[in-house]
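stuck on this chain:
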Amino acid sequence: MQLDIRNIRPFICFDCVAGSKAYGLDTPASDDDFKGVFLAPLPMILTGQAPSLVQDERHDRQYTELGAFCRELELNNSGALELWACMGREQELFCAPWFRDFLGRYNFLSRRCYYTYLANAQRQLKRISATHAKATEPPPAPAVMQDYAYMVQGGKLIPLSQWLQEQGLGLCDVVAQRLSDEDNLYALYRQSSRYGIFGRDATTIATPEVATDAQLLGVMLFRASAYSQQNRRCAQYREWEQKRNPARLTTDSALVDKQGCYDTKHMGHVFRLLHTAQEIATEGVIHVRRTADNAFLREVRAGRIPLTELQQMVQEEMDSLKPLFDKSGLPETPQVDGIWEDLAQLRIKLHYE
């Protein structure tokens, strides 16, 4: 048997509401998200066939195998800790009694949370930066091969188009021959061709047979990597443009002259993660449902705060986080002695019951 989202239900030991509805930050347009934990059958564990994660195509439902979940908790993974913190709270939909008893033996919160929550917030910031760059500085049109071709002349590189014009030649008046398999160097000869140097589709360098008496004109360098990189950028931008959610990309009124904008969803995650980390350091708990900062997070989500102001706030909160953890009474690492032995015994017990 192979476990997937279609047959995972009998193996689920914990299930809860996730995403914006778990945080209390949902809007009428919010999706229903669910996360949980499942216990794979012992034979699948012993044979290495158990998946660590089962999810649907849209990632609206995600279930982590108990062993992988314990590992994430031990590492203070922020997502795993939030899921654990939903146990016994309003987000909980189902929880097996043995699951509650098993996890209740350990204290997972530690000063390690400083690093994991900060790293997660920084990942969100990178996503915001990438989105901002795409929205404000879209790449030019797809690369044209001729723009990446140069003639080597007198120790200098001269654009091919300029060199052809100076020589009174067109693309169909010359043909190319690769000088080596490793280098993007080509010998150019005076010889007529039907489609020119870059072939019929203008996406490859054509290298037809050269007449023995064809005149050698010089050596051409083609910057293949730069050409490919530009095409990849264009393709990635087009894909992002098609799939992006316009409602999440807000124009920053304070930066209209610079076409300022930011991904409001990810910016909201940044502050939620930082605030949660502050609460872990000062209170020793995780508040999944955002109450104290609900209004502020909704303002961020709605794009009502200028990007420059948010960036300054993020930096200040990041700078203040380490001192809070240094003063906290949290242990250096999670208190999980014996968890793996206990998990092994639990698997055996549940298998034979």
